[in-house]
Amino acid sequence: MTTVEDRPLPAPEAELEYAAALERDAVQLRRIVDLLQRVDVDDPLLLDVAEELDALSEHLENPVETVTETIRNPGWRHDPVSGVENAIAPPIILESQPDGSVTAGVEFGLPYQGPNSFVHGGISAMVMDHVLSAATTPKDGPIFTAQLTVRYHRPLPLFVPLTVVARLKEREGRKIWATGEIVVDGKIAVSAEGLFIQPRPKAAR
Ligand SMILES: CCCCC/C=C\C/C=C\C/C=C\C/C=C\CCCC(=O)SCCNC(=O)CCNC(=O)[C@H](O)C(C)(C)COP(=O)(O)OP(=O)(O)OC[C@H]1O[C@@H](n2cnc3c(N)ncnc32)[C@H](O)[C@@H]1OP(=O)(O)O
């Protein structure tokens, strides 16, 4: 079976075109997920939606091979938090600040709801993990979350602009600690501390 890696790479211009198309596709897919949370349950059109989506999936599945174990497009465009090409990502767009911290602005809608009108706590933890790890990620290789402590100070509302911030706290060899917060209306709603570890080089394991 040919894997995605075996296929010839598209020319760079085509690659950019595909990347832009994937980004647009992800936007539309997020829109569908959102609309399915708020659709009128009596809408007769709802009965056809699954068939239309099925037809689209059939088209995408064939003749393109399904990626199983291979990672098609590692990196920020594809990850589940800031990946603009990944429809399950909100997406959260990270910005590096001159003081070394990482910030992001985000607003969550209904697909991220936990308690009525508030963001699901697991989503907040995912965001903290990601943004803290971005604040620690060394330029010379990957980093793994070893511990993450999340404190929920107040419920995080849906449909409100939120600010996420994270910073490196301390580094000791391969271990890096980071802290961060999700802020709403100038108040801390969620705070987190994480330990991130650069794994030992393979030869040393
Ligand atoms: C625009 C702004 C952007 C800025 C950023 C720019 C670029 C960034 C680019 C790319 C970033 C890419 C990706 C980031 C994206 C997402 C990240 C999400 C994070 C995750 O989604 S990640 C998945 C979940 N995560 C795991 O899947 C970890 C499973 N696990 C392991 O892979 C190992 O477990 C590991 C590697 C953690 C350690 O393994 P190891 O073999 O290296 O560790 P070892 O035994 O040598 O210990 C060394 C010292 O760490 C201490 N230690 C070890 N483990 C500990 C623990 N858990 N708690 C407390 N202390 C611990 C020991 O006690 C010892 O301490 P001491 O030296 O003091 O004795």
From TrEMBL:
<dbReference type="GO" id="GO:0016787">
    <property type="term" value="F:hydrolase activity"/>
</dbReference>
<dbReference type="InterPro" id="IPR029069">
    <property type="entry name" value="HotDog_dom_sf"/>
</dbReference>
<keyword id="KW-0809">Transit peptide</keyword>
<protein>
    <recommendedName>
        <fullName>Acyl-coenzyme A thioesterase THEM4</fullName>
        <ecNumber>3.1.2.2</ecNumber>
    </recommendedName>
</protein>
<dbReference type="InterPro" id="IPR052365">
    <property type="entry name" value="THEM4/THEM5_acyl-CoA_thioest"/>
</dbReference>
<keyword id="KW-0053">Apoptosis</keyword>
<comment type="similarity">
    <text>Belongs to the THEM4/THEM5 thioesterase family.</text>
</comment>
<keyword id="KW-0966">Cell projection</keyword>
<keyword id="KW-0378">Hydrolase</keyword>
<keyword id="KW-0276">Fatty acid metabolism</keyword>
<feature type="domain" description="Thioesterase">
    <location>
        <begin position="118"/>
        <end position="182"/>
    </location>
</feature>
<keyword id="KW-1003">Cell membrane</keyword>
<keyword id="KW-0472">Membrane</keyword>
<dbReference type="Pfam" id="PF03061">
    <property type="entry name" value="4HBT"/>
</dbReference>
<keyword id="KW-0963">Cytoplasm</keyword>
<keyword id="KW-0443">Lipid metabolism</keyword>
<dbReference type="InterPro" id="IPR006683">
    <property type="entry name" value="Thioestr_dom"/>
</dbReference>
